[in-house]
Amino acid sequence: MSEFSVSRSACNSKGSMIVVSNRLPFVLKRNEKTGELERKASAGGLVTAVAPVVIRGSGIWVGWPGIHLDNPNEKIPESDPLDKTPTAGLRSNKIGPPSTRTTGAPI
User: How far apart are the C-alpha atoms of 36 and 56, rounded to whole Å?
Assistant: First the structure.
């Protein structure tokens, strides 16, 4: 084993990860017909690598939703049940813009 190798057990964590990013790990858009928010998978290396870790550790992802929300407490939709992308397991109560939505306290 080289001096730079890291064992798999060294990467296991009992804590939760909080990701504070400039964007949420998916794209939100408003349906023009219904006015409802829709959640679409976002492609990106950071999202692909980090989202599974956040999900497994029951972490939180905080970031800008990519669109203006008139009501900052508007519910972010859950992922489509058929979604197989890395962000599919991020529940709406574990993601959101900086607010009391995700942490229970202002950020």
Answer: 29
Query: Which residues have C-beta within 8 Å of that of residue 29, sequence separation ≥ 6?
Result: 37, 38, 40, 67
Which runs of consecutive H residues, i.e. helices, occur in 1-107? 45-56, 100-103
Distances (CA, A) of 24 to 8, 9, 13, 34, 77: 28, 29, 23, 22, 13
pLDDT per residue over 6-44, tens digit each?
444 545 656 788 999 888 999 899 999 999 999 988 877
Query: Has residue 54 got a pLDDT over 80?
Result: yes
At position 102, the amino acid (one-letter code) is: T
Q: CB-hemisphere CA count at 13 Å for 75?
A: 6
Instruction: Encode burial over 6-45: b for 16+ CB neighbours within 10 A, e otherwise.
Output: eeeeeeeeeeeeebeeebbbbebeeeeeeeebebebbeee
